[in-house]
Amino acid sequence: MPALLERIETLLTAGREIVDLHLPVTDGEELAWLYRSTEVLSRDEHDGIMNLRVRVPEKALGRFRQRFAGQIATVK
Length: 76
Fold this sequence. Notes:
Helix content is 38%, strand content 37%. It is an alpha+beta fold. 11% of the residues are buried.
């Protein structure tokens, strides 16, 4: 059963990148865009900075890279 669940997860997330990024907590417009256009996997705040991990669908990848170019920490 675990192998089947892993295969399903792989198929559902194909073509999507997982990205870590940092945004100021005051940047509500960008945060709203992330919630509309990506799957927010985790979010925490520390010293006025939001640390987010998002899964970006392939169709939104170009816009995401343009919009958040200077705020991307890691890509998986």
